[in-house]
Amino acid sequence: MRNPNPKCELECRFKEGASFTTAMGWERVYDKHGNLITQDPNSTTGTIHCVACNKHWNYTSQAGVVKYKEI
Ligand SMILES: [Zn+2]
Fold this sequence. Notes:
- The protein is an all-beta fold.
- The protein is built from no helices and four strands.
- Strands 1-2-3-4 form a four-stranded antiparallel β-sheet, with no helix packed on it.
């Protein structure tokens, strides 16, 4: 899991909570070099908690991009 709080200067430890991933089927299309050109539409949402700062975030992860929102 990534670091939701890169500015934090403490010895952060991030604990992941329950997460949920959608299970949509998707058409995989490749170009002539074998690169996948359609993106996985599925997303994962969950919570993460820094045990050093005692902060919590919700996160959404889709197509390799993770967004955090402090809660
Ligand atoms: Zn922290």
